[in-house]
C-alpha cells in the first residue's frame, strides 16, 4: 500500500505561497508534474500512491479525473498570478499508469498546461506507461497531442523475474511498445529496468540489457530493487518465501549495466540513468536534481516553488472533495531554510555526472571531499577543476560519499 506522507505545516486553504517564494519562482526553471493514481493491478514491490479499482471500492474514478487536474491547474494559476514565469520547459505525467486514461484526457491536461502558462517551443513532454497499456493507435494520438517522450516500465525480460515482481506484461511487450513509439514519431523513449530481484540470475539481467539495446531506445533507467515496508513483497520476505536483496549482487548488476550500456554508446548522466546523447537525458528529472521549480498536480503529488515544498492529500476521493469545495488539495508543506536548500543541492547534484561545485561545501565537507578523492570515490581531475564528480566506484558508494560531504 502507499507509504505515509511526511508531517509539515498546514497549507493555506487557497494554496497561497509566501511572498519570498513567489519572488524566487521559476529562477531555476519551471516544470509541471501530473500524477495519475490509477493502476490495473498492484505490483508486489510498489508503495507508490496508486490505487486499483478494488482498492477504490470497485470504481476507478477515472472519468472525471482530467477535470479535477484542470481544476487544480486553475488554482495554481491563481496562486502564481501574473508574475513573469518562464514558459513550461518540461511536463512529466507519472503514476500509477497514466495511459489508463484515454489519450483525449491526457491531451486535455497538456492543453490546459499550455493555456495556463505556455509550453516552451522545445518543451519535453513525457508520459509513463505500462507496456500493455499502449498500442500504435493510442501512441499516435499521444504524439499528435504533443507528447514527445515515452517512459516504459519494462523491469526485465525474464518471465520468472516478472512473476516475482507481479508484472502483468509478457516479456517482449515492453520492447515492442518502444519500437511502436519510435515508429509513430516519439523523439525519445526510455525503458526502466529493476535489478536484484530475488531469483534473478546474471544471465537474466544480461538478457534484459541486450533486449533494451536491441529495442533502439535512447534512454535507459536501471534501479536496484528496494523493498518498502507495507508492500506484498516485504511481507513475503518476512515470511521467508523470498530472499532479501543482496548488496553484492546489486553492485555486480550495476557494473554489468554500466559496461553494457557504455559499450553501446550510452553515457551515465545520473547514477541510475544513461542517455545515448546529451539531448536524450530526461530534462524533467534534471530540473529536480538541479533545484528547479515545479507544480505537482494530482493526489499525493509534491511541488516545489521558490524554496517551499508541499504535498497533496493522497486519496483520490479526498483530492476531488477539496477541489470540489474550491480549496487547495495541499495537505502540508515545509519552507526550506538556506541551509536545507544547500544540503539538498549536495544530495542531488552529487548524483549527476556534471557533479557538484566544491565551493558549495563547507570546510568539513571539503575535507570529506578530499578524503573521497584520495580513496578513489571522487574523480581526481574533476576535483582539481573544482568539481566533486563520482567515479564508478563512487557511484556504487554514493550514499557514503554524501555522508562524508555533509558531516
UniProtKB/TrEMBL annotation:
<dbReference type="InterPro" id="IPR013785">
    <property type="entry name" value="Aldolase_TIM"/>
</dbReference>
<keyword id="KW-0949">S-adenosyl-L-methionine</keyword>
<comment type="function">
    <text>Probably acts as a heme chaperone, transferring heme to an unknown acceptor. Binds one molecule of heme per monomer, possibly covalently. Binds 1 [4Fe-4S] cluster. The cluster is coordinated with 3 cysteines and an exchangeable S-adenosyl-L-methionine.</text>
</comment>
<keyword id="KW-0963">Cytoplasm</keyword>
<dbReference type="InterPro" id="IPR006638">
    <property type="entry name" value="Elp3/MiaA/NifB-like_rSAM"/>
</dbReference>
<keyword id="KW-0479">Metal-binding</keyword>
<dbReference type="InterPro" id="IPR034505">
    <property type="entry name" value="Coproporphyrinogen-III_oxidase"/>
</dbReference>
<protein>
    <recommendedName>
        <fullName>Heme chaperone HemW</fullName>
    </recommendedName>
</protein>
<comment type="similarity">
    <text>Belongs to the anaerobic coproporphyrinogen-III oxidase family. HemW subfamily.</text>
</comment>
<feature type="domain" description="Radical SAM core">
    <location>
        <begin position="24"/>
        <end position="267"/>
    </location>
</feature>
<keyword id="KW-0408">Iron</keyword>
<keyword id="KW-0143">Chaperone</keyword>
<keyword id="KW-0349">Heme</keyword>
<dbReference type="InterPro" id="IPR004559">
    <property type="entry name" value="HemW-like"/>
</dbReference>
<dbReference type="InterPro" id="IPR007197">
    <property type="entry name" value="rSAM"/>
</dbReference>
<keyword id="KW-0004">4Fe-4S</keyword>
<keyword id="KW-0411">Iron-sulfur</keyword>
<dbReference type="InterPro" id="IPR058240">
    <property type="entry name" value="rSAM_sf"/>
</dbReference>
<dbReference type="Pfam" id="PF04055">
    <property type="entry name" value="Radical_SAM"/>
</dbReference>
Amino acid at each position: 500500500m502507499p507509504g505515509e506522507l511526511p508531517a509539515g505545516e498546514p497549507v493555506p486553504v487557497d494554496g497561497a505561497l509566501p511572498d519570498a517564494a513567489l519572488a524566487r519562482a521559476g529562477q531555476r526553471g519551471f516544470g509541471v508534474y501530473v500524477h495519475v493514481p490509477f493502476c490495473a493491478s498492484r505490483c508486489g514491490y510498489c508503495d507508490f500512491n496508486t490505487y486499483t479499482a478494488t482498492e477504490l471500492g470497485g470504481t476507478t474514478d477515472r472519468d472525471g479525473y482530467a477535470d479535477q487536474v484542470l481544476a487544480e491547474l486553475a488554482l495554481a494559476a491563481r496562486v502564481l498570478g501574473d508574475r513573469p514565469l518562464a514558459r513550461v520547459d518540461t511536463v512529466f505525467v507519472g503514476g500509477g499508469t497514466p495511459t489508463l486514461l484515454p489519450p483525449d484526457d491526457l491531451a486535455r491536461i497538456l492543453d490546459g498546461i499550455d493555456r495556463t502558462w505556455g509550453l516552451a517551443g522545445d518543451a519535453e513532454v513525457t508520459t509513463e506507461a505500462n507496456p500493455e497499456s499502449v498500442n500504435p493507435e493510442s501512441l499516435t494520438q499521444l504524439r499528435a497531442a504533443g507528447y514527445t517522450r515515452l517512459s516504459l516500465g519494462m523491469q526485465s525480460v525474464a518471465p520468472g523475474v516478472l512473476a516475482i515482481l507481479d508484472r502483468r506484461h509478457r516479456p517482449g511487450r515492453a520492447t515492442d511498445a518502444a519500437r511502436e513509439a519510435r515508429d509513430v514519431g516519439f523523439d525519445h523513449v526510455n525503458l526502466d529496468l529493476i535489478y536484484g530481484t530475488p531469483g534473478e540470475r546474471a544471465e537474466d539481467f544480461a538478457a534484459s540489457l541486450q533486449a533494451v539495446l536491441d529495442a533502439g531506445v535512447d534512454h535507459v533507467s536501471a534501479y536496484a530493487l528496494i523493498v518498502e515496508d507495507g508492500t506484498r513483497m516485504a511481507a513475503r520476505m518476512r515470511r521467508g518465501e523470498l530472499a532479501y536483496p543482496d548488496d553484492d549482487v546489486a553492485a555486480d548488476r550495476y557494473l554489468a549495466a554500466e559496461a553494457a550500456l557504455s559499450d553501446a554508446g550510452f553515457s551515465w548522466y545520473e547514477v541510475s540513468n544513461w542517455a545515448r546523447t546529451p539531448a536524450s537525458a530526461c530534462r524533467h528529472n534534471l530540473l529536480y536534481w538541479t533545484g528547479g521549480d515545479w507544480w505537482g498536480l494530482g493526489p499525493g503529488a509534491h511541488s516545489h516553488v521558490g524554496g517551499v515544498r508541499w504535498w497533496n492529500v493522497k486519496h483520490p476521493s479526498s483530492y476531488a472533495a477539496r477541489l470540489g469545495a474550491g480549496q487547495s488539495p495541499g495537505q502540508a508543506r515545509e519552507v526550506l531554510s538556506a541551509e536545507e536548500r544547500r544540503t539538498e543541492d549536495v544530495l542531488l547534484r552529487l548524483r549527476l555526472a556534471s557533479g557538484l561545485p566544491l565551493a558549495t561545501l563547507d570546510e568539513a565537507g571539503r575535507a570529506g571531499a578530499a578524503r573521497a578523492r584520495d580513496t578513489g570515490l571522487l574523480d581526481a581531475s574533476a576535483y582539481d577543476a573544482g568539481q566533486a564528480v563520482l567515479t564508478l566506484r563512487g557511484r556504487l558508494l554514493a550514499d557514503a560519499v554524501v555522508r562524508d560531504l555533509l558531516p
